[in-house]
Design goal:
Aminopeptidase, two-stranded antiparallel sheet
Amino acid sequence: MSSVEIVPAQSSADMRAFVDLPWKLYAREPNWVPPLKSEVHRLLDPLRHPFWKFSQRSLFLARRDGQTVGRIAAIVDENYNRFHQEKMGIWGFFECANDPEAAAALFSAAEAWVRDKGMAFIRGPLNPSTNYEIGMLLEGFEHPPVVMMPYNPRYYLDLVAANGYAKEKDLLAMLIEQRAHASDRAERLARVIAKKNSVSIRPARFNDYANEMALIKEIYHASMERNWGFVPMTDEEIDEMGRSLMKIADPDLVIFIYHGQDPAGICVVLPDVNPILKRLNGRVGLLGMLKLLIYGRKIVGWRGTVFGFKRQYQKLGLPLVAFDYINRMLREKKSAEFLELGWNLEDNKDINQFDTEVGGHVYKKYRIYRKEL
C-alpha cells in the first residue's frame, strides 16, 4: 500500500472530488442522506457564500494510490474570535475511509494551517460554525438524520480520538412521538399563561421577507447570545439562510410569540425533507422536481430548529404556550408522526427539562471535540 498524500483542494476537479467523496464512503450506509451537491458547492465557495466574507479556509484531500480517501476543512472564523476574544481554529466537513493514517494526515494538515494563523486551539466538527450543521454523531446510529443534522459512521469516533481530540461538549436531540399528545393539564396551563401574560402568536409573513428576517435576527441573537459557542450571524448570512429555508418551511410553523406588543420569542419547525433528499441523491433536475412534488406530500417528520425567547421572558412560561400551538398545528397535519427537538446543549438544564416534560426523550447524541495547539 502506498503512502497517503495530502493536497489542497484548489482546482475545480479537486472541489468535485471534495464534494463527491461521501457518495463513495456511504455507498452501503442505508441511513446516510445525500446533501444537494449544488448547496455544498455554494456553502464552500468564498465568492458566493457570505460566511467567507469574515472567515478563511483551506480544504485538504487525502489521496492513496491516486484515489481520494478523505477530506477536511481548516477554518478561522474571525467574527467568532472577535466576539469571544479567543483564538479558535476549526476543523469541519471531515469525511474519511476507515484509514487511520489518512485521518491522522488530514488532522495534522488542518492543525498546522490554523496554527500558522495564530490559533491557540482547534474545535470541530463545525460545518462551518455553530450556526450551521455541527457535531459528530455519538449515539443513535440506528436512526436516520433529520433535516440539517449530521450523520457519520461509528469508526469516525475512533479516528478523532486517536488524534488527540477530547470531548468539549455534547449535544442532544430529543424525540417526541406525535401519537403521544401533550396532557390536557399542559394544554390548560398554556392557555392560562397566554391569557395572564397577554401572549399572542402569529405565523411568519413570507411576503414581508425583509422585515420578518430582521425580526428573526433580533430575537435569535437576544435569546442565544449567552449560549456556549454562539456567534452572531451577519445580515447577509441571515438572508442566505432564510432564502434557503423558505424553500421548505411551512409558514404556519415559523412563529413569533408576542408578550403584549413586544416580540418575545421565535420558533422555527421545519419539515423533515431528508427522505426526499435521499431520493434526489444530490441532484435536482426535472426528475428531481417531480419527486419533490410526489414525495413532499408524504412528510412524516418535523424538526424544531429554533426555540428562542428573550431573556426577560424566559421565566414566564411562554415556551409552553408556543409548544401548545406547535403541537396543535402538527395534529392538524394527519401525516405528522414525530417531532425532533434539538440540538440542545447537554448542560442546558432548563430546555432539556422542558423538552422532557412535554414528552421528549433523548434519542441521539452528538459531540464537539477540542484540542490545544
